[in-house]
Amino acid sequence: YTREIFLQQPNRIFVRTLIVTEKHIRLIQFDRAGALYSPLINYHANPDILIRLIAGLSSTTEEELGLDTSVWWETIDGRKAPGYIMVYHPVTKERTFYRMRSADPFLARDDLCERGTRMWDVKDDEGAQLLVKDAWIEEWKTPEYVHLSKVVGVEGVQQLVIYEDGTSHGMYGEIKNFRPECTSPKQWFQNKSFQRVVTVRYGEPMDSYKSKTEAEIIAAFHDAIAAHERLLDSGILHCDISLGNILFGGENAPEGLRGILIDLDYAVRHQYYTSPTPDFTAGTRYCQSQLLLRSHGICGRPGHDYLDDLESFFWALIHLVYRVPHNNCAAANKLMEDWRSDDMQVSGGMKKAFLDECLKVDHIPGVWSRNFARMVVELHRFIGDVVREKEAIMGDLTCWSFANMRRLQSMKNLHYYFVLSIFKDALPTPPEHWRHMVPTSRQSM
């Protein structure tokens, strides 16, 4: 019930409700840090408390009810219509208003005790199409706007327009502001702050590949990987490569912008040649590198690096390849199900087995062109070779040479050059001569 309230009221910050029995009453609050509740109160012995609780929950003040008043709608003929979203800039102290293009966010995460991510299509006063992203971020994590601010002007990476940091103002900018102070370990909760970013709106996500040509898919992957290298050169490692985080650049997008890398929620500041990254396993399961999955929880494993992200690009491509209808759908679906397994060892083990196979062009579903299939096979061979080289350095993880790992990572420019060449060589010349469409059904073969 509470989850549905959050979904139906996308500007909801918290939900407060009462549980009433014949003798007792209890107040419960749900927010992005979880739930907290009051002791059972005998309202026969304390009738004033019952009255005060009901009066408080019946308030007509939206802030007191847990609603974000920076998001509001218009009403047309008694129905909710697109309204406005206000962004307060913590530095300039200015308020900017963006017009909704739809009354509902196009993305709303349904997890109760998570980030509560909401994404809205909006436009500014000049009619430019933009994206507003709201999320609740753990206080120990670097807000996305920090990374986005550092990559303004970096080609192929999502571009920031403006941001709002909830820690700088507002009663409801942090969860701790509307929760009682912790007086015992049992009351501990993970404080989170509200973050809002406004970015440029790009094309469709890679998930919508069925309406694209093979050339458009190849170009989008090429430019997204090139953007990933530029991002790394800026000192930022993405850490969450997936089909949903690669966007098509839009119709007639120029080279460099045909694929856009978005979502720096899990990104980390990282200079691969000076120090390892923190030991954590972030990302979208079906695209996570097999090495990170298989070594999760092992003391002394290497941190997430750019090679893991390059492998994630490969898994994103492989999922796209096997998701189209073809003759061996059942086997492919079972394979992808294993890659998505909640068990990290199962997912990582099955990915390793796939990389160790001798993949051939004939193994690629026939709905793809031979040229596309050769590209996939070549990328499989390269990723497999690099993974095995990295594993040879790591050994059994009891004792491995950081110097040897640095020597491998010092080949970063060559690694990106080779991967980008695989995609570039697969592009038709000129593009107009290749109109091989991605099939959407068996009939389109």
Automatic annotation (TrEMBL):
Domain Fungal-type protein kinase: 1-320
Pfam families per record: Pkinase_fungal
Superkingdom of the source species: Eukaryota
Protein name: Fungal-type protein kinase domain-containing protein
